[in-house]
Fold each of these.
Amino acid sequence: MKINDVILQTATKLVLFVIILFSIHLFFAGHYYPGGGFIGGLMTAAAIVLLLLAFDLKTVAKILPFDFKKVTAIGLLFAVGTGAGALLFDAPFLTHAFTDAYLPLLGKTSLHTAVLFDIGVYLVVIGVTLTIIQTIGESE
Amino acid sequence: MNVNAIADLFIAFFIIIGAFLSLVTAFGVIRLPDVYTRNHAASKSATLGVMSILIGTFLYFYLIEGHFNSRIILGIAFILVTSPVAGHLISRAAYNSGVELWEKSVQDDLKLSKQTAKKES
């Protein structure tokens, strides 16, 4: 029987952007509200898993041509880099800095180096989740 | 009646309607005879019930606490899009794996269209 996935694929195309936007919102809300790198990363990974359910592994690999093991490595580099960056300023490892900046367009924005650490967490979570799911999905 | 009392009425209306529809869903899932009718009860009235409860929550935070929570609106739109699709996929998976219709049902159009498609090919 020929499989017809039009409804699932159309709904996926529509819903995917909502999920990714919400995951980015969760990621940036992490400092003042519930959220942060971990659930932001998990939710982005879940959006990609939805894409994997609606389409197949090869199509998704074409849309997102990342090696997710390297994404994990880059995330770890971010985390170690923010920790080691503190050493350059004669502060203990993992000391974070914080300022209020007045950016054009955005207005008063708090810039904190913990966000860089959180980007590391975010990338590691995406990388590990998708590596697990892709390796399980590929094995026959 | 001041504004807050009217707001209270609206919020109570939406939340009670939502809870009632969720109860109707639960009764439907228990009492209906086969997978397809149960799925029909679950995916329709549960969607509307949860959406009503979310609208009530949104109105509470907006009118009483003065906090516009866009995540709730996003949740309402998200449930409206995804829950019927989930119902459709569950029904179709059940049909394709050969779950029988209720014995008193009289018509199976999908079976007919599959037979004609087989004849034509």
Amino acid sequence: MALYSFWIFDRHCNCIFDREWTLKTNPSSGTTNSKLNEDTAKLLYGMVFSLRSISQKLGSKGSFNEIRTIATGKYRAHILCTASGLWFILLSDLGQEDLSQVLRYLYSEIYVKTVVYNWLSPVDFADSPNERRGQGFRKIRNRQFLLAVEKFLGPMVN
Amino acid sequence: MSASMSGNTASSSSSKKSLKAFSDDIWKNKTAKINAELFTLTYGSIVSQLCTDYERDFAKVNKQLYSMGYNIGVRLIEDFLARTALPRCDSLAKTSEVISKCAFKIFLNVTPQIGNWSSNKDSFSIFLDENPLSEFVELPMDAARELWYSNILCGVLKGALEMVQMDCDVYFASDVLKGDQTTELRVKLNKILKDEIPAGED
């Protein structure tokens, strides 16, 4: 099993968290909330956004059709979109068929408990209208959140 | 029950029974219980403190309760979605059902009746036969005219619905505490907000 990276986007199209692992052998390698990943984040957002609109168009009217995974020749992206507009995305190797339970856990046990229940942390990461529509720069920096993510995903990195 | 399975149960075209069974299961198995009286009394102390702070200017108390509720609602919706894994509702009828059968059940263990639909189906009422917030409450004379004791609920609904892109007006139409026959919460949909798209894409 190998995880390559983990991303969270909010409903303002901003990347509010990114974690990229560079060495399979070392779960603490890589970057967290890196400026260098800004462009990658935008491209990833665009890819999911487009495929998501396609999947919803192709679904029969009225029923719900949310995208779950996208596979390429090298990796698989696992996606959880919540009704409130948050996207949780995990990139893994092709061996991983379904990480939806992992994404659910990240949302309900980690994000909800360390960000949403934490009243001193914002839940909306766009402070003003000109930080919306993908132009925001704020990230989740809660220590509890960062620790919990490392602890939970670390063992799955290689 | 796995999250993906429960997601399917809930989305399988809204048969009333399944949504109820689904909510009962979450209430029974996934929700920590607390003493209802402690909750009622805590809320009572908040309202009474606000009445003191605003020198019994009940219009201001209503407003403050509403904005406190709003702040709770925008967070509570994430908790709700994490627990239920429900997708967005495709109609207001579905929304009303989820609110009464699922949200009120999970958070307050009551299932209020929905009714009083407007002719164009853009507003409905929630009839709270039981209201855990006002269990032991009697309003004094001066408060009975203006104070909406449970106004925090309006704010919660407003905030939570806004986070799923529904811009609504939520207000109390009547309250048994004021001598009315029923406690009626009115929800009026103004518009469905558009999902944002990145700048430069439109």
